[in-house]
Structures are given as structure tokens and as C-alpha cells.
Specification:
This protein is an all-beta fold. Helix content is about 0%, strand content about 50%. The protein has a five-stranded antiparallel β-sheet, with no helix packed on it. The chain has a five-stranded mixed β-sheet with strand order 6-7-8-9-13, with no helix packed on it.
Length: about 290
């Protein structure tokens, strides 16, 4: 019905998930003409096929939110590919993708909308996942969620000190979480114990940081901001190892594989960048 704010793909099930307004459309890529097989809504309803929201006469996008529904800001899949978390308002809904049923909620303590989610296997129990919520209320909460368990789950901890503005993006690897905010700061956290702040990179960018991810196979974290700049950080020392003006407009999202960095921007383009193999050279903002 409106802007698509998030896309995820499950390797295991070959299903794709797209988020718009209060709805998650589930697409089966095994079908010759990929079709929307289910629609999940923020209120916990499941519909077969697509939900027709816009005006069929005019085909216009609609900003109207159906009664009882809330804008979904982010989703994430469990490592198994059979569970989904959706953030709407100050809560996160759990879905069992084998039955496409809502089976529970992560609830507790956020004072404003959850803007982003991150997920990683728990270091304590292999049958559990860390699910991490970043909110407009400047706080990050960590939940321990057993695989395929439902019900209402309360946070294990809140990370302190909070950011000075809303959390925009996060990325997690093992016990290390990186968070970035509208306050232009990137924080590195150790999730063991009570969730300790390892390092705070103040003024990491000149504008809101809207994208953050690991570069697989290398100890590098990539960040991108509203001013169109991407930066590479050493994940161990937090030192800046490279930066470049990638777009003239906001970078909304960053994805990586073993050889490339992909940036999606408000200028309507996707940038594909090949990082240098040697990060010890001085950052050269002219070449990718």
C-alpha cells in the first residue's frame, strides 16, 4: 500500500518478505511467477494471498492505517529461517513461519517506536537467540528468545548509557553489537554479562547514521549516513580505515557479501563498491 521499508530473504525456505505500512507480504520464489502467498499484519492476523489496500480505481498509494494496525518498521528472521520477528510500535511480534501464526511478543519498557532489530545466536544457550531492539526512545534492549517459544518475553537487559537520539540501525556478530543513531554516534557493545559499552565513536558521521553492517570474512564494520558517505571501521580497534562519498543523497541501507558493499540511496540508485584488500593505506576518498 505504500513505501517498502524492509526486504528479507530466507535461504532455507526460499521465501522473501517485504514490509509496507502494517503488512508483511510473503513471496514464494519457488513459483515460476513469484506470488504473494500470505500477508501478515502488525495486529497478528494472517491472510492468504495479498491484502488489497489501495484504491483499485486510481491505483493510488494509501497512507491510511487500518483500524487496530500499526506501522511495521523492521523485521528479522531467525537463523533457522523458520521464525520471524516484526517490530511495530513499542513491541515485537514473534511468528512461526511453518504455520504463519503469531506465537508471542517481546514486550517491556520501550517508551517509543522500535525502529530496528538485530538477531544473533546466544552465547549461553545454542537453542536461544539474542533479539535486540533499538528504539526512538534512545534505548537498546536485549531479549533471550528460545527457538520456537512463544508467549510474552521480557527483556534480559537494557544497554546503558543510551544514545542521545533514536536508534536507526544495528549489526551483531557473536557477542559484539554495534549500534548507530540519529545522534551521529556509533557504539560498540559486549553482550556478555550485563552488556558493557566497549567504545563510543562520537560524531562518527556528520549526519544521521542509517546503515550499519559487517563485512563478512574481514574484521570490518561499514556505516552509511544521510549525507551519502560510507565509512569502514576496524571492528577490533574501532579505528577508521576508509571513507568515501558514495551518494549525493541519504544512504538508507547497506548490504555486503565477501567481495562487495551495496548501498541503497534516496537518489534512486544502488551503489556497488569493491573494498580494497589492504586497509592500512591512508583513506583515499576518491576511489572505491
Amino acid at each position: 500500500p505504500n513505501n517498502v521499508v524492509c526486504v528479507k530473504y530466507s535461504e532455507q525456505t526460499r521465501l522473501a518478505f517485504t514490509v509496507s505500512s502494517a503488512f508483511i507480504k510473503v513471496w514464494d520464489l519457488r513459483m515460476s511467477a513469484s506470488s504473494c502467498v500470505k500477508t501478515l499484519s502488525s495486529s497478528g492476523l494472517t491472510t492468504n494471498g495479498p491484502v488489497v489496500m489501495n484504491n483499485p480505481q486510481t491505483g493510488t498509494r494509501t497512507l491510511a492505517m487500518p483500524p487496530g494496525e500499526t506501522q511495521i518498521n523492521d523485521i528479522c528472521l531467525t537463523p533457522s529461517g523458520y521464525g520471524l520477528f516484526s517490530a511495530a510500535g513499542d513491541k515485537v511480534r514473534l511468528w512461526d513461519l511453518r504455520k504463519f501464526h503469531s506465537i508471542g511478543k517481546l514486550s517491556g519498557g520501550h517508551q517509543a517506536a522500535i525502529m530496528c532489530l538485530a538477531i544473533g545466536p546466544s552465547n549461553v544457550n545454542m537453542d536461544q537467540n539474542y533479539v535486540i531492539t533499538g528504539s526512538k526512545d534512545h534505548y537498546i534492549k536485549v531479549f533471550d528468545v528460545p527457538e520456537e517459544k512463544g508467549g510474552v518475553i521480557a527483556p534480559k537487559m537494557a544497554l546503558d548509557p543510551p544514545h542521545y537520539d533514536g536508534i536507526q540501525c544495528m549489526t551483531v556478530k557473536g557477542d559484539t553489537l554495534w549500534s548507530a543513531s540519529r545522534d551521529t554516534c556509533i557504539k560498540k557493545w559486549d553482550l556478555r554479562g550485563q552488556g558493557e559499552l566497549v567504545k563510543s565513536l562520537n560524531n562518527a558521521h556528520k549526519d544521521w547514521i542509517c546503515g550499519l553492517t559487517y563485512l563478512p570474512g574481514r574484521d570490518i564494520v561499514v556505516s552509511g549516513c544521510r549525507a551519502g558517505t560510507i565509512k569502514l571501521w576496524n571492528a577490533e580497534t574501532c579505528a577508521l580505515v576508509g571513507e568515501m562519498k558514495a551518494h549525493n543523497s541519504t544512504i538508507n541501507t547497506i548490504a555486503t557479501n565477501y567481495s562487495h558493499i551495496f548501498t541503497g540511496s534516496n537518489d534512486g540508485s544502488i551503489g556497488m563498491w569493491r573494498p580494497r584488500s589492504n586497509y592500512d593505506r591512508s583513506p583515499d576518498s576518491e576511489s572505491s
